[in-house]
């Protein structure tokens, strides 16, 4: 019998090109190393994860980092945001999951609506 160990969660991702452009042009920027965050107010919260090929050359490593970021974001359902987020990986090396989790927690604490 096959047992699935992982819970696949649907993250509301940002895909609209106009919304992405608005986020990068007019959004507030903050850095929580190894992540940079762009934030803009919206009615429906959506998130975008980006890792540059120039920073992390190997696709396998980029995809692993994206999976880790998405898992960290999805495991905590209490993100109480009415904002679009673009989470951009800015380090030149592959961080461990603990560093990513700490940075994501700082992002959450900073951008939660009060």
Structural overview:
By secondary structure, the chain is an alpha+beta fold. It has a single domain, classed as Ribosomal Protein S5, domain 2 (2-Layer Sandwich). It is built from three helices and four strands. The chain has helices at residues 17-26, 59-75, 97-111, and strands at residues 28-32, 35-41, 46-51, 83-89. A four-stranded mixed beta sheet has the order 1-2-4-3, with helices on both faces. Helix 2 crosses helix 3 (97-111). The radius of gyration is 14 Å and the shape is globular.
Main features:
about 110 residues; alpha+beta; Ribosomal Protein S5, domain 2; four-stranded mixed beta sheet
Mean pLDDT: 88
Text of the CATH class: Alpha Beta
Give the count of structural domains. Answer: 1
- Over all CA atoms, what is the radius of gyration? 14 Å
Number of strands: 4
Please write out the topology.
Layout: H1 17-26, E1 28-32, E2 35-41, E3 46-51, H2 59-75, E4 83-89, H3 97-111
Parallel strand pairs: 3-4
Antiparallel strand pairs: 1-2, 2-4
Helix pairs in contact: 2-3
What does this entry show, briefly?
This protein is of the alpha+beta class and 114 residues long.
């Amino acid at each position: 019998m096959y047992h699935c160990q992982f819970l696949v969660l649907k993250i509301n991702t940002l895909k609209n090109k106009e919304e992405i452009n608005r986020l990068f042009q007019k959004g507030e920027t903050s850095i929580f190393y190894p992540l940079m965050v762009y934030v803009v107010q919206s009615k429906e919260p959506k998130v975008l994860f980006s890792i540059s090929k120039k920073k992390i050359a190997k696709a396998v490593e980029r995809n692993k980092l994206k999976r880790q970021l998405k898992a960290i974001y999805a495991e905590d359902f209490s993100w109480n945001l009415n904002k679009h987020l673009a989470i951009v990986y800015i380090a030149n090396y592959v961080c461990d999951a603990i560093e990513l989790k700490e940075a994501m927690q700082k992002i959450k604490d900073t951008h939660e609506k009060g």
